[in-house]
Amino acid sequence: MKAGLRQEFSVLLIILAVASLVFWETRHYGEFTGGQISPGSFPRLAAGMMGVFAVLRASLLIAGMARPRVEERLPFSRDVLARPVAVAAAMSAFVFLFGTIPFFLLTLLFLIVVFFIFGVRPLTRLFLRAGLVTAVLYVLFSQILHIAA
Amino acid sequence: MEHLLSAFGNVLYPTNLALLFAGSTLGLLVGVLPGLSSPMALAILIPVAFGMEPVSAFMILIGIYVGTKTGGAFSAIMMRTPGTPAAAATAMEGYPMAQRGEAGRALSLAIGASFVGGTLSWLVAIPLVGVIGLYAVRISSADLAMIGILALAAVSSLSGQDFLKGLMAAALGLVLSTIGLDELSGTPRLTMGSYHLLGGIPFLPAIIGLFAVATVLVDASDGSIAKPPKVQNTGYTVLQVAKELWVMRKILAVATTIGSLLGVVPGVGSDTAGWLSFAYVKKLIASGRLKSDRKIGEGVPHGVAAPEAANNAVTGGATIPMLTLGIPGDGSTAIMLGALMLFGLQPGPLFFRESPDVAYGILVALGIANFTTLLAALMFTRPFVSILKVDRAILLGSVLVLALVGGYASSNTGYAMLIALLFGFLGFFMHHLGYSIPALALGLILGPVIESNFRRALLITRGDFWVFLTSPISLVCIILILAIGGKFCVDLLKKRKFQRL
Lengths: 149, 501
What we know:
By secondary structure, chain A is mostly helical. Chain A has helices at 2-25, 41-63, 78-97, 103-117, 123-144. The radius of gyration of chain A is 24 Å and the shape is flat. Chain B has helices spanning 2-11, 14-32, 38-49, 54-79, 90-99, 103-136, 141-158, 163-177, 203-220, 238-247, 249-264, 270-287, 302-324, 331-342, 351-354, 356-387, 392-409, 414-433, 437-460, 467-470, 472-500, and strands spanning 180-181, 188-189. A two-stranded antiparallel sheet of chain B has the order 1-2. Chains A and B meet through helix 1, helix 2, helix 3, helix 4 and helix 5 of A and helix 8, helix 9, helix 17, helix 18 and helix 19 of B.
């Protein structure tokens, strides 16, 4: 429960920081003048509402009128986060190498890594399926849609 | 009337009909596979459909939208794992029926009831769209701004998660929608000096990230990815099912009404309609008004037919506010709304006047899609049930490539792909921390609509904020928003009282 509260308060602080950043970034847009809303007004209104809701939520948590639910917590455990972090790293590499390495090779490598992360075994099955899926995606994106080369 | 007839001719043109059938088949497949959803499929396929004529592109998208509603029942019945949230209630009686050796009967009931619910809801939607469309042109800028805010409040309240968290997500969506050049003054806003952000957050890659990439990351954190499911044998008789559905016609009529009405309300998805219909059947059995030799949980056929009719009936209801007011009813219609804007079209009060071929085309396609989905389901039931054996890891890996390259395809820049990736991370954290992703997506889509109408209303009245209270529709919206807030406060107080006891 305490870990959940700590996490919840951390997130609310981040939300308040984002709202403050919006106010800071829009500080030089000028004021509302009879009918003409300045460009900064709507972002400030939305950010202000976001901040108000965050403060309300924090108040309810402090007053004990709301509690973080068990399922609404990101457990920082290896079991839960190892795979998503690995997939995220693979995706980041895909995004940054896209266009640099030929699409077929990049997709094949990406799928081999992702299937490995997701536990596809044995390795022969993994390589076969990665190759098959890569071929289908290559035909779709390179030959039919001409999106990737 | 001539526009409607012309739309029928357009939709029934062989190429468009083939595209609609292809979309229905794909939607059915997406619905069958647990973990894949209608918003995900729509988000990934929009870049593919972008190169087509708008009417043709929407044949595929509407086909997918309707197909997923039916497809979700397959895995719900065969594996007790709903393919889509809409089919969650179907699993309650569908799986026990399959365990009794009645998988074919359950699947046929689900397919037939989906067709009935979707078609009846569409028949009701056609005249309603016309009536609402007539009055929609009288809606002022102040009204539209307040309707948008009401939609956000409703989604936040009804998304099933904490109300304040939903509101925070919606507000974040509004903030993100303001990034870029201001529409009226051309001033850069919140761009942090970045050249890329001058064009704002591209909608399509953001949606792909939130619904497709985030889903895969969330699934990656679940331990049970690579285990193939157990699949039972199927076999079905269409004529027997038709007879059975006729006997259930009163229950189907009620379920269809529930789905159609709930479809109009933003934020209330097909899953709510399914559960409400299931609860209705439960009540009928408990009170003895429905005679059944089985108890609830033992495979009552009405418990399969009613939720499926209701969740498909949502499609008709959700289309009404999307086309006439430019307000999406659920996540899928939110993405289709975004797709319309990408094509340079503006759904709303003038949509049927300014773009009648597309507007009526979508309306007609929605109804014909029920027929193409029925045909696809009858043709492909056995192969699709077999596909349930495919390793989910393979599917998820493929979805990632489709999502990232689809994000790239939206503007042919690596920046779009990066947006898809970043929003995928955002969606992952939001899911785990209980913040509503649909609320954020709606905020992103409705932000420009709300802001431009808000500013226009104040420009017209030279800064008089009373316009939001003097306009009847705007006033009703404000009252409803306050009612939603009031309900939240009342629930909190009740909870506190209960805790004290």
